[in-house]
Amino acid sequence: MKPARFDYARPETLSDALAILADGGAEASVLAGGQSLMPMLNLRMARPGMLVDINRIPGLDAIALADGVLSIGARARHAEVLASPLVRQAAPLLAQALHHVAHPAIRNRGTLGGSLALADPAAEMPACVTCLGATIVLASASGKRRVAAEKFFLGVYATAIEPGELILHVEIPAIRPGWTHAFQEVSRRHGDYAMAGLALALRRDGSRVAEARIALCGVESATRRQAEAEAALVSGGVGAACQMLGGLDAMGGDEVTAAHRIHLARVLLRRAVGTED
Amino acid sequence: MELPDEPTADIALTLNGEAIRARVPLRQNLVDWLRHGAGLTGSHVGCEHGVCGACHVQVDGVVVRGCLMLAVQADGAAVETIEGATSSGRIRALQDAFFNRAALQCGFCTPGMLLQAAELLERNPDPSRAEIREALSGNYCRCTGYHAIVDAVQAAAASLRA
């Protein structure tokens, strides 16, 4: 079980990386943390002609908070995001969810940008950035482009990234006063892929839910804002929102059926509404 | 992997405290090079797709899967394997506790377990059993059923705090 041959480039600057990606076209694969790409290479499920290793490009892992926006570099490792006081302060949802992302050794190497670019339907980070209304900033040899998270995830392993593009960073609006976050997940063992996961941001007016944002992972093939359930949660409470989740286009499968994923999404919503932080 | 036309790269790194240079096949992963190129067979190759944790090594101070990193990516890095961690004595308390608590049978998973447990105790000197299980969730052991391993990590933590 060894990878097929590939060319390997390790650019030291962003402009070099973008030039290589522009030349490489669909044959080039970005190697960031490699925690999903390397297994696929080892199993020969992926056979890119060239790997563009972005681990030496300075600044791609910066985490900063300014003017109410938390910016996280695409190559920020999961462990760095989890340990960041700025992330805890401005996006507690990410810190909660990252405990569910694989295992410590994977989090030491895996990156936020890599998780978003892969768009595994079971992955936590796509649901979190969608829930929080983040913007994904992409760069290519011909310039930069900003894509709202809600328009970024298109399907199983499918995103708005065009050939030659690289995720630079993610901009997340910092949590505002009165809002709380909660992330809930069910998996077979700790760190396994989610059978279902739920990201929730909530603002209460007294005990009443005044505003809500919900996104799921492990349920539908692409994460999205659950607008119908959000509206129902505000107007009719958690029971009404659970009713709306019955309309999910849940993934099926021999091990976890679509009906079971919907059941889990409802359980997780009830848990999350009780436990926001 | 030793084919005459195999594309290679030259790397220079610090391996268990020693500066070394090597020529590695581009597609060779770090743990295969450590075992076959550097002759350090304490890091084990289990699943080769990032599931089992037997290949754990430390790169620039953090524990990583040796099968999910290319050897060429270790160029310029400081790599420490179970051999280096053993000879420096930094995991002595854990090794003693694993022995005393019978936290291994075949020993295949043990190097990875020890390195991951050491990273936990550096970050958290007094972990709960649940925290130990979470930290070791990516390390598979097919012999012990994990209870003795959790006991050993707790015992090592207590001895290091004493």
Would you write up a description of this structure?
The complex is a heterodimer of chains A (277) and B (162). Chain A has 277 residues and is of the alpha+beta class. Chain A is built from 11 helices and 13 strands. In chain A, the strands form 4 sheets. In chain A, strands 4-5-10-6-7 form a 5-stranded antiparallel β-sheet. In chain A, α10 (238-244) runs antiparallel to α11. Chain A starts with 6 loop residues before the first strand and ends with a helix. Chain B has 162 residues and is α+β, with helices and mostly antiparallel strands. Chain B has 2 domains: 8-85, Ubiquitin-like (UB roll); 90-161, [2Fe-2S]-binding domain (DNA polymerase, domain 1, Orthogonal Bundle), CATH 1.10.150. In chain B, a hairpin with a 2-residue loop joins β1 (8-15) and β2 (18-25). In chain B, α3 (92-100) packs across α6 (147-161). In chain B, 47% of the residues are buried. The model of chain B has no long low-confidence stretch (mean pLDDT 96). Classes of the chains: A alpha+beta (277), B alpha+beta (162). Chains A and B meet through α2 and α6 of A and β4, α4 and α5 of B.
Low-pLDDT ranges of chain A? none
- What is the radius of gyration of chain B? 16 Å
User: Describe the biggest sheet of chain B?
Assistant: 5 strands, mixed
Roughly what is the average pLDDT of chain B, rounded to an integer?
96
Organism (chain A): Roseomonas populi
InterPro entries (chain A): CO_DH_flav_C, CO_DH_flav_C_dom_sf, Diverse_Substr_Oxidored, FAD-bd_PCMH, FAD-bd_PCMH-like_sf, FAD-bd_PCMH_sub1, FAD-bd_PCMH_sub2, Mopterin_DH_FAD-bd
Keywords (chain A): FAD, Flavoprotein, Oxidoreductase
Domain FAD-binding PCMH-type (chain A): 1-177
